[in-house]
Amino acid sequence: MSGASKEHATEILIVGGGLGGVSAALATTRLGRKVMLVEELDWLGGQLTAQAVPLDEHPWAESLVSSQSFAALRGGIRAWYRDHKPLTDAARRDLLLNPGMGNIGTLCCEPVVAVRVIEAMLAPAVAAGSLAILREHRVTGCKVDGDRISGVDVLDLKTGTNLSISASIVIDATETGELLALARVERVLGAESQTETGELHAIEGPADPLDQQALTWGFALDYLPGEDHRIDKPEGYEHFRTLKLPFWPGPQFGWAVSNHVTHQPLDRKLFIGDTDEPYLFDLWHARRIAARRNFLPGAYASDITIANWPQMDYWLKPVVGVSEEAARAALDEARRFSLSFFYWLQTEAPRHDGGNGYPGLRLRGDVLGTADGLAKQAYYREGYRIRAEFTVLEQHIGVEARAGFDRAEYFHDSVGIGAYRIDLHPATRGTRDTVDIDTFPFEIPLGALLPVRSDNLLPACKNIGTTRITNGAYRVHPVEWSIGEASGALAAYALAHNIPLRAVRSDAKRLEDFQAVLDGLGVLRHWPFYGALKPGSRRGYRPPS
User: Fold this and answer.
1) CATH class assigned to 5-192+382-521
2) Among 125, 132, 112, which Cα is nearest to 69's?
């Protein structure tokens, strides 16, 4: 491997190629800036692709209540299927084509397809020379000069070449906010205390940085009855199969899980009916990404689904804020944990039709770009968050915390919108149940994108100024996209006007001008209607008076 070092310079450096990084790149290049994007993996798309998490969206996803660029991503996915896949005539005519007919959302697709659409969206900027993408490059360090990042050190994972990249503005779009630590930016990790935030659902007692939501290492699978695709028993299986969270009704490897809404056990099996039936309430149909009924006979031997289920939540050890050795060990255990659940499905799981085990379940790495069938990367639900000029609290978006109000807080500096329930999975301490809180459709305040000190760094995903509670609503796909789009646009605007990033928010006229730029990009900044997001409900929403 070469130890040679190279130097590069760009106007804007984006570290991380997840959805926030992609939308930031689109916004900055559309506004005429030179951008370099660095991604550790060979795939762009983050949670939608490399982490194998189908789109989690709000009930109005098909009503164009999103930024125009996010709507273009969704439209591009459907167009790719119509142009390249052997759809049935009925599926091809369906304006709201849901390739997988998964019931987690209205657009469940194969991750490999989403990758191709994202690449196509970025292709014009790449061809024009305004965007350079460095795949399979890992950030190893930051050069900090006072309140500014003067450079970022990067390692080419294929050649071993070291790069030093300087930029006027750096955008952290990493999955865990790792750049915040490297750049010594003021940050928060884990759970804040009720004393600090005043939130109803924050933890009692002192804040705990290592109290972090479980991560999940997903995988893709199909089902071929009568065939035997059993894998070798994973290391640690005997321990994992008996593991029990104290608030669950039984072992984690099982059908009965804790229901945080009714506080009664919820029984959700792998199958409750024929796999060809649409929209059954079982695990198979939840995140199904390819429904064979949508395609011509013989195109798919089986449905394909994504396993990213509560039974796979890995909460045994924290991964962020620990040593590299400890993080590697925890991630290795998380992989074995997921493979162990798959082995349990193949060999021991009580069947819907009697007996035990589904040996016909088969891992499908081809749709995830891997050899082993697991996602390229674990799904991180949280990481480092900036200490921001403004922090979004439960009191701003939670229904219970906003007693007497019928909408979320109105932010004068809004730069985007989102809508998702506050959804927290079990924590690494293993003592706190899942949390699911009603929310109002909410806004993204510009103040949550501005670090309290650092002058030229912006967050672009889960690392904005939220708490661990509100992160549970701001972490999903369309919100991350909008955060990245706003940060990218802010970086481009500040460079165009030769002003500091925080000067945009502190000056009313500048803020109004910047928000007009967002409007021109097709960004929605305020909700056209409001109402609580309650479990399973898509009714009861009304416009503001």
Assistant:
1) alpha beta
2) 125
